[in-house]
From TrEMBL:
Official protein name in the record: Tetratricopeptide repeat protein
Record-linked InterPro entries: TPR-like_helical_dom_sf
Taxonomic superkingdom: Bacteria
Amino acid sequence: MNIWAWVWDTQEKLEESGNERLAELIERLPTAALDDQNAEVEAIVPEALGLARSAGLPWVEIFIRHWHLQATGDGFEKVPYAVETLDFSHQDEHRACPQSVCTVQDLARAYSGADGPGYAHERLAVVEEALERIDPSWDCFHCMIVEKVEALTDLERHEEALTVAREGRAAAAAAGRDFSHAESDVTNPLLGLGRYEEALESARPRPNEKDDTFARWRRLSRADALIGLGRLDEALDELLEPEVALREPRYQRSWVQSVERLVRRGRFTNDWRLGGLLERMVAAQVERGRAWDGVRIGAVHGRLALWRGARVTAERALEDMRALAARLREPERAEEQLRALAAGLERMREREPVLPDTADAFLEAWQADVGSGPEQDLERLEAARRRWPDELAVAWGLHRALHAVGRREDALQVLRAFADAHADDVDAQATFGHALIDAGEVGEEVEALAERVRPLDELHAAWLGARAAYRADDSQGARELCELILERDPEALNARRLAALACEELKDFDAALVHRNGVLEHAGDEVTDSDHWDRLVPATIVGDWDAARESAAALDIELQSDSGPIDEEYGLVRLRFAVDDFVVALRTGPVSARVLNVGLGKEPQHAGDRVVFDAGPIGTAAEGELVTFPVVHVLAEGPRRAYPFDGVDPGDDAWAAFAKTLGEEGWVIDVRYSTDYELEVDGETCRGIYGHLAVPDDVSDEAAHARLGELTADWDGPFTWLPLAEAAGDEPASARQREHAEALALY
């Protein structure tokens, strides 16, 4: 059964019935899941489920639940949800749903992530039962084979797993299905058998593969195989970037085990930074309820900590391992690893660090010791806290060290305990409050701290409230509190900066500019380049060109004009309108641009928009890539009616004249394909050109169609704008262009 045919049919019916939003969400959900965009998945699911239930579409609900579980459903925390989804999908009226079989895989994956070997036999049983309901022509046949292979691999029955994988692929091929692009069902058993050359070939990159979950699993497998073959430089190149592995807990065991092997071969640095990364990975395993992988990652974490002499880190790893082992179906399976780490700690006997006579002397010596790292600092900072429990600087140092090694909640607990023990100390309360806000904790605890601070320092209580409100997306609340502070203290620069940000979020750019000007007025020698970049945003939006030019001069930006509006050409930039909405634009000023892309169909439309963007780039652009900036405000929208064009490229000069003429008349021309796009016309190969054009709002379809006819009348090869010709009602021209489109396979 082709599940995707059902999905496409469902989307079409939803759009026809006016449920375009639900159709859009079920189209996006699988892609987000396969791209490991789990935050987006979590944002999509509640809305999609609500729409599906309101429309009375239980099969769509099963589809949504399945992809939700595919993204984040591997662990004890999602087992109840997986069981509930399986039961729901197997009700009599739902069993015919194409994805009811997929919920069997979801349950198997949940238990696999929780404790793979512990539930391997049960996983085999449910998968065998599901395989009896389907045949190799089904999309989900391969998914079931993968789950069977993974269960056998967890039982270390690698030869059997390899046989199952190969027989499954052969059966699928006989049914006309090719799953060679998908998950590494063959690769994992080969790795388990130590057949590294074969595993490397199995996990080779696929032609034109995108960076999704399948490609990332192949990279992990290639790194594993290359280490086994001793090709360590190549293994390092294949190893997933740490931030990618950190983002998705499923990748972490393979990544960590490869890193340990590289550390032991002297090819990966074993320092506190690695320790902090592994600490966060263990925490991710705990959060998702991935007990068996968590135990194994914790064991590596502990071993590497012992190797670099980080006793406190190794103790924490042992503590986490014990908690995770207790969740295993057979806790004794972790005993050997637990005993090994405990024995290593026993050999590293605890010793009390020698401290100076005073806290000030300790802090001075600690800060001067640039050779130590946060892991080594933990022992003496813990000892210092025991000796000087009333020193905020010592507590803050311990907080920073714990944060650096990935123990975020422990770091907050240090400041929490200090604040509770020093309820009348404004600095203690404020330090803890700001740490909570920086960690994204802006709920009741921060409110309680602000109330505790208010009788001691009303303005600082307001500042805590303002920061918390802004972090909680309450821009109006943040603005009001900042302006309350500024009434009492006009030189409170950070309050001015935050007030400006809040006003910008509220689209009150005149007020934002007042606050940005106030920062520059009161900062004196503390003015930064960022303050001028920040002022450029509201100044450009409201058209205060004197202020904009003054800040540009302060930043040594050479403008091409001396006065008036800034509308120049500085090259291309990439702009982000939303999380999945990016365009290319021509930069027209320090923080302004004009969009060059033209959207069609379901693509967002920003053609010709004049926008202001934040000067702080998003991420770091690789060499040869455009820098990406977030859009702050649309100054003016461009044309919204868009049509495709397609045909033979008339040549560089003719095309340049065509695009220049239409551009001057307010059109937006967006060439999507020209390089390597070829058409065969009358037996000759010609260069093709395809793209989108946006028609000015004051130009009718009829006039636009006629204008294109005028400008292309002398071109030799067929060039078409069929949808626009049809919209203009010119049937003879439409017929000619339709004939060209069919003959040349255009559009």
